[in-house]
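Hi R.,

Here's the chain you asked about this morning:
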Amino acid sequence: MRESLIAFAVLAVFMFAAQAARLRGRRRRAAPSHVPWKPGQPLVLRTPPRNALLSCVTALVPAVLVAALMIRSWGAQPRRVGPVGMAGGAAVVLLLLSVAVFQLASAARAHVMVHDTGLERVGVFGRLLVGWGSVAKLSFNGAQRWFHVTTDQGAHLWLPLEVAGMPEFAALALRRLPRQVLEADPAAREALQELAGTGGAPRSRSAM
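And here is the predicted structure, written out as tokens:
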């Protein structure tokens, strides 16, 4: 019993530390593009891999703890745990390991490509093409520091400010997005204008 309490305490401390690291990263200014972007070429927006790696480790730690508790319980009281308990614990471990593997794959593959004709989200399992004219809504969340794009088909894209190349994205979005989309959310339009004009991150806003 005491080992279980210690394991869950360690897990809780680690998860709070991981969340604090994410929040600290969001408060940083947007990074400049590593490679100068030229009009006519696709602009690649890639989230810093530290976010996915933190999520990966956050999933691995409880997987290790659950596996250790299963082995210890089976060795001490195999009849009490039983095959059903072991099967349930194994399912939890496999689920957490799957999340960790997905986050690693996301860190290596996931990105958004910005073209003159629209956006292309490349994920772990597929791609989503969104023309500029297909964007139905653009909003800006100053607390979470990201742009939220909604298409006319109901698909969603999130673009964090910490991604390198966001000033170039903002300038292109101001030219390509439909006028009604920009006028529908003044906070998002002002955030794009500030980002494109200064090359830095907009001030925090409460708009969503």
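One quick note: Residues 3-8, 26-35 have pLDDT under 50 and may be disordered.

Cheers,
M.
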